[in-house]
Amino acid sequence: MTTPASPLLSVQGLRVVFPGRHGAPEARAVDGVELDIRAGEIVALVGESGCGKTTLARSLLGLERPAAGVVRFDGKPLEYSSRALRAYRRRVQLVLQDPSGSLNPRHTVYDAVAEGLRIHRHAGDERKAVADALSRAGLRPPERFFLRYPHELSGGQRQRVVIAGALVLEPELLVADEPVASLDASVRGEILALLLRLRTELGLAALVVTHDLGLAWNIADRVAVMYLGRIVETGPVEAVLTAPRHPYTQALLSVLPEAPGEPVVLAGEPPDPSRIPSGCRFRARCPILANGEADRAGVADRCRAEDPGVLNAGGESQAACHWAAERVGA
Ligand SMILES: Nc1ncnc2c1ncn2[C@@H]1O[C@H](COP(=O)(O)OP(=O)(O)OP(=O)(O)O)[C@@H](O)[C@H]1O
Ligand code: SF4
Ligand SMILES: [Mg+2]
Fold first, then answer.
1. At 21, phi and psi to the nearest 5?
2. I need a surface site. Which of 4, 166, 231, 297 has the fewest CB within 10 A?
């Protein structure tokens, strides 16, 4: 049994590295991530393109082998034998952005949803399990969908089929990589409402990867903000989105249409995981360092020389930033 003190999923010091091509330096796509997800909790993972969200999501499923660090599920470190991974994937399921890409166009809805049961040699009533999963994913009456093909469905219905395929094994955690990004705005809300209902009805935890901070606000209990391979701020959604502490989170929020004040446009090159700066990884683009505030707070030298380190993911809102730490007197 997982207690509140022991997270369902816990990631410590996780690093995933891709070799550089043609002698280029390696890409440190995930570079020291700390992250906890508790049972029944929805965590939104946000950050700009290329910051490592998908690589992190895949490594939680065991699809990327870490160069360092550990992923623990229910207290136990992940094992990477194919047998152990197969057992693990009953409990943790991945839902991808593009439902068309995840569904075989030649398979009926029934076969798509039953596939997981067959892989895992489900002993019970297959037809009932498929019907229950479709119904939980909001496709009712489920029998009406059994013999339909993906091209006969709307985008929202296809995503529901993908979610049903994940639910059929009764997992404890869904890892959803941009689950609504390819859908029309009108059906996004419905799919998000579905994820929230699954949490209430089944106690399902979820890590939802998204570019969209508004979506994070509507769905998540906690937010983790990722920058260049690292979670740089994490905390309850309300704390992080109304009182962001890391200059990167502040900049992300400042460009939302409803944000007060001037948008903060980040200077400098887009970040490159094969060239992570020394000191604070955000320093080349940090407005607080550029405008002298870090200097006035007496931390500018540390910004240049000292990595603010990884976040301890246990407590409330936390930011990997010398200036933010100075401001709260930590
Ligand atoms: N298989 C791979 N081989 C080499 N480099 C990779 C590989 N997969 C990802 N990368 C690099 O790792 C970094 C992180 O990529 P990732 O796809 O995890 O980012 P992301 O945050 O999911 O981006 P997006 O928001 O665009 O989906 C990028 O610089 C990417 O080019
Ligand atoms: S540690 Fe310094 S450079 Fe990094 S985000 Fe904080 S203020 Fe900016
Ligand atoms: Mg991605």
1. -85, 150
2. 4
Place of tokens 């440190």: 28
Cβ-based neighbour number of residue 170 at 10 Å: 15
- pTM for the model stands at 0.94
Distance of CA 223 to the CA centre of its chain: 9
Q: How far does residue 318's CA lie from ligand 2's centre (Å)?
A: 14
3-state secondary structure of 132: helix
**Mean confidence (pLDDT) of the chain:** 92
Residue nearest to atom 6 of ligand 2 (CA): 321
pLDDT at 297: 96
Which residue from 225, 249, 283 has its CB within 8 A of the most atoms of ligand 2, so it is best to mutate?
283
- Between 268 and 191, the higher pLDDT residue: 191
User: In whole angstroms, what separates CA 269 from the centre of its chain?
Assistant: 24
| Ligand 1 pocket residues where CB is under 6 Å | 18, 27, 29, 49-55, 273
Query: Could you give the CA distance from residue 31 to residue 273 in angstroms, rounded to a whole number?
Result: 9
How many angstroms does the Cα of residue 117 sit away from the middle of ligand 2?
48
- Pair 129, 103: CB distance under 8 Å: no
Structure tokens at 270: 């887009």
Number of the ligand 1 atom closest to the C-alpha atom of 56: 18
Identity at 166, one-letter amino acid code: A
- Relative to the CA of 229, which ligand 1 atom is closest? 14
Task: Report d(CA 111, CA 98) in Å as an integer.
Answer: 19
Name which of 140, 142, 195 is nearest 171 in CA terms.
195
Q: Which of 194, 188, 193, 190 is nearest to 211 (CA)?
A: 188
Has residue 5 got a pLDDT over 70?
A: no
CA 23 to chain centre: 31
The whole-angstrom separation of Cα 71 and Cα 77 is: 6
- For residue 292, the CA-to-ligand 2 centroid distance in Å is 11
